[in-house]
Backbone:
């Protein structure tokens, strides 16, 4: 009966859990990140070391009303391989003010989000959209998707049963929170497939909580992509990708990092010490000393450190509950404006509570 | 934008709302009940008045460990018409002790429920079962279904990914809470169809909160049926029935009345006054006086009374929150034992919290 | 152990429960209302019957931006006796639009509430205020007070530990939700007394969910008073009144009706039938017929009707969860503006989520 | 208006925040622990280095039904100074099985907890007890105290209003959750003082979520003490201690570690690397290399690492929500049995849900 005692898990986590233990131990430590901006940074660092240029990826950054907007385009296989991310567009909004319970910052991000979503999705006026809230509504930092779904202005049933009541400028929108594998016993992808086959949307927009490798991006970043959803991506498992090919419609994703892996904190602490020591040792002596700790050995140390909780730990700010509420509100405002052109910023603010 | 202000509605309620107003006003008042035992009582009263026997229905009652168990079998069309209920079996457990936060009463009901479910479902050892929690998790008296789903011991993912970890005596169980039309914009039936087509269960068990026409049955009754689920049944709409024919597998339902319509209270108050007056008037004079109030006229009075809230009212005990938690616990215990023969009563009690 | 099975109760309800059963049965039915506007209507009806003028009470009504504002002043003992309410001022805002999830209506009510509160409280610039949220946070229609407390902008700790960070135009505000008797085992009044003796506020503002006798006022009415708080008022028990005399500071109350007693619905249904019948009977015959039902007899009928649930029932709209969230938001916005003159409407909207 | 954006804080955290920044930076890193067993380990390590015996402290460990029970007695000032903990008794139950959703483990801990509490409290038969649930009910890992309070079987109001209904073997018990400074604006200690002055208990039992310095103890440890409550203890501030002297009655505390500071993880990761390196360096060379990193320098590195979130981070298991529910249940069962000798284990299990 131990299986019930296992926590409700995200599809992606279950994927990791299902891996062979030996495979895990033979791995070289590499911090978990779901953000393209972080994958790009890491790829950039590697190319700097290897003296090989990073090709197949374009990267552009600008400030818009106090928000840092980064656009990354992975346009061929080389780029995808270097980044560890699929082909497509990644737009990232970064606004540390999101972490403050600051109404103006959230209003700005919601409006920018609506604009960027419209630019990315390029939906025809009468498109049908299904919003999918991924994650576990009972685990605070994972509840972002379900909380956004609750705030979406759904209209599909109105278009079907009383179309005369829906004005111009509204699209056919529906929304589901399919739950997580540990509670349903069903792969999230299977549930979404089943619903898509009945609802026939022109586009699916998935909303999910992500893991960042940097504390400074937690609850301060929104990532939009047109690349589909890859539960357990980067872990090399055979989980089904949800994208245009498999679902038969466009698939967009909106993600916000709400946690950092405890392993990332541990890794960063180790690196900081090693760098400090290297600085303290004159000449090239440092390398000799710190070599044993690169790669696999560091991974083993991290496993040893976090083993008492089976590495099943997350690092969150103490105010995670308020952050999730605020962010769900902001995402829903942006989505409601992007999906329904007739919804004004004021209406979106009221609808999305 | 008013549609959002409309409350999240149950499929069955939306069905009522969608009806033509004139149809509603031409109706003769008839209290809403989802319980076969109440439909049987009403049918019985009518046959007593008409002096015609109630045919096509068998009815049997017994006391089992302080719980009143009623078995009703609707075995032909006459019976179905008289009852206003589809052909099939209805088992009702009635235990007023369920309303007390009394551990023994709940344990007794859970065990009886497991036995009756097993008798009704007659599932083969290796059957695959999908539990569906109907209702809105954000409206307390409607949250019963989703709260049961959270407590179901799901195993389907374990059978798929690590079958060696699942012992004998466990069936392949999955569970979903599809949400309600007002929040998803999708008919609940469509979502269930989509999931069933991917999960291929041998049986679906739907759990739902019901309306009773009697206060004494609220939170004290569990009804089991093998007749499928009819969202908005009795309202004559074209909503799709979910049964063996449409879903391609057996469909069972477990329901507990958690509310009484305010209209039922109003109706009962009116009847009580009328009976009191009839007793006070000597001879046959009463009939003359009270005739104008039968049927349609009473319905109009009830509409007038409840109109300020658009008849969108429910009557619940003040402790509804505690009742729903206790009942969700009890139903989950019964279900976990019925679905997994290896689960003992003690394990069920622990699993179902 | 049955006491635990008793539901968490409001102080006022526990008071009723504690009464002698015979006293209850000897009562003439009189609908429960916590609203001065309803007490005034009833008093007015009685004086119309008795042909005696209603003295000691002034009553004034006006429309302000679509909101009906009623000001009732009970200025002597005659008025208090006729109304069944203590001396003082009662301001009622009535806006059916509050029941729609309509942002503008809520913004209007919040602003009006702030103005009326300021007019009623007449607080000096540096007054110290304690907000008290009465009610049970686990019973949805009773959770209004605790939900408002969560949204109050408290400053007392800032004034004490880092006064330089608090700008001009902020008062010293603290806020508590003391819980209910059934969960704490302590009279709410005792807890408030204890806290007041340590916090030394110049004014206490209590926020509470009320019972209305009219469905049309539920979730559409806000009542402000300067008369103190009388847990279980009108029930003739010896529960301590919380007012200027007992607490040593001004005591204001803000209340919103969120439920109607099931007994009120039953009573109204009976009256409707009786009136209908009286109209149908020619001449004065009606009185003869319906006399037996006045007063005590009707009360007994109501008891008989609701007995299965021990009269422990409430009637709420099905969307009660959304109403409570919206209303808590609106009350907190009004309070935050009234307590802190520097808080703008925009800041209040953001702070009070 | 930034103060509102500050998160709701525990009294103890606010104390840290209120400290002078320079004081913080001059500190030598020392991991945060609220557990006497961990303070004892640290003291023991220091005495091993200093070659001075640890005096004034007795320490005894035994296994009871699979649970490790440690009894620490700090019996003089030397011991208190060495431990950084006040004089008194500390009983710790350690059961890793608590982390599994395992009913038997929780039943065992609840029963042991009841026994140890009775042994520690030595309450007379008719003692009056006030249970205080510390912490913020809206921040999952801090909600333990309020969640226990909800499950306590309170009787004080029954003894006052209908003493004949309370059987033998029940004590006069009340329970409050006073909220946290960031939400009330009032020091928790002031609220407790105010309530104690009205309720006049013979003993206060405070329940609180703690921070551990070891992942293996999180959600697997219960600490009981008779030493009073020291909000912000060990941080050297002037916050009022709540103990027999200040409250005028016995003060017990029950605590369970639910988080580890992110700084502790970072520190441990650094130490692990340093130890690894020291092992790799032959002879005494290591000390020379790693000396720069002891003490203050490590503290600065940790600050640098965690600065983006202002060191306001916690590390929790991903299943924190389930752990808190299970543990609140277990603590309430133990408390209800210890406070009311007539409550059996079965009744406690049913009462405490």
Residues:
């Amino acid at each position: 009966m131990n299986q019930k005692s296992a926590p409700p898990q995200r599809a992606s986590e279950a994927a990791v859990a299902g891996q062979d233990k030996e495979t895990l131990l033979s791995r070289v430590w590499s911090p978990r990140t779901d953000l393209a901006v972080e994958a790009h940074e890491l790829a950039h660092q590697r190319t700097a070391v290897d003296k090989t240029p990073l090709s197949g990826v374009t990267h552009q950054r600008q400030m818009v009303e106090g928000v840092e907007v980064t656009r990354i385009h992975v346009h061929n296989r080389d780029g995808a391989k270097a980044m560890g991310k699929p082909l497509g567009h990644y737009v990232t909004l970064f606004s540390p003010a999101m972490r403050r319970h600051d109404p103006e910052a959230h209003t700005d991000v919601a409006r920018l989000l609506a604009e960027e979503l419209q630019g990315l999705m390029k939906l025809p006026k009468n498109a049908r959209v299904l919003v999918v809230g991924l994650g576990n509504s009972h685990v605070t930092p994972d509840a972002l998707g379900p909380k956004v779904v609750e705030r979406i202005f759904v209209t599909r049933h109105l278009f079907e049963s009383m179309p005369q009541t829906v004005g111009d400028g509204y699209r056919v929108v529906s929304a589901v929170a399919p739950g997580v594998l540990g509670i349903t016993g069903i792969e999230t992808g299977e549930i979404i497939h089943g619903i898509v086959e009945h609802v026939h949307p022109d586009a699916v927009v998935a909303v999910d909580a992500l893991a960042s490798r940097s504390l400074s991006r937690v609850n301060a970043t929104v990532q939009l992509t047109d690349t589909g959803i890859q539960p357990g991506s980067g872990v090399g498992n055979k989980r089904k990708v949800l994208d245009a090919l498999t679902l038969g419609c466009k698939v967009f994703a909106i993600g916000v990092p709400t946690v950092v892996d405890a392993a990332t904190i541990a890794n960063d602490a180790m690196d900081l010490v090693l760098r400090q020591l290297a600085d303290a040792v004159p000449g090239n002596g440092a390398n000799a000393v710190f070599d044993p700790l690169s790669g696999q050995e560091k991974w083993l140390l991290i496993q040893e450190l976090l083993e008492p909780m089976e590495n099943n730990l997350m690092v969150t700010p103490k105010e995670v509950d308020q952050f999730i509420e605020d962010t769900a509100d902001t995402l829903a405002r942006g989505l409601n404006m992007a999906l329904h052109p007739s919804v004004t910023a004021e209406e979106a603010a009221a609808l999305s509570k």
Summary: The two ends of chain D are 40 Å apart (CA to CA). Residues 267 and 301 of chain D are 9 Å apart (CA to CA). Chain D has a mean pLDDT of 82.
